[in-house]
Design goal:
Blueprint: H1 11-25, H2 47-58, H3 68-83, H4 89-108, H5 124-134, H6 154-159
Helix pairs in contact: 3-4, 4-5
Length: 160
Amino acid sequence: MTDRKPPGVSFETWVERQIGQAQERGDFTGLRGTGRPLPAFDPDETVFDWAVAKARREGIAPAEMLPPGLALRRERDDLPARVAGLPSEDAVRAVAEDYNARVEAFWRRPQESRWSPVPGLADVEALVEGWHRDRPPPPPPTAALPDTPPRRRWWQRRRG
């Protein structure tokens, strides 16, 4: 249906012709849900409820549908949990600085609305401090065994 409506033809006639051609090609045969009634309308369901249910049916996390500003805010709130499993302080700093770079890029872009949420920067030092605080203490060093000369094997004892 990429054709444009020809001039002088009413929309109804043009749409009916498009539907008739699609039926002749068999585009409507074997569609999922054919012959079944539409799902019941729930008057208490809001648009938000419908969108969340649709996202779950499609396998999309509702958090992925957030506008960019809110998504960045949510990511900032999840940063401490994300960096908790990182192996080094440099990795923690890299994650926080990457987030801050994306926030600064967001600030430079024009926003769709003046009411768009504006995310803040992550406090890199606070993240590193929290990462150090939550790390388990290093295991105590094992006691070194005293240096003893290696035992001589039985065949070495006979020679010397």
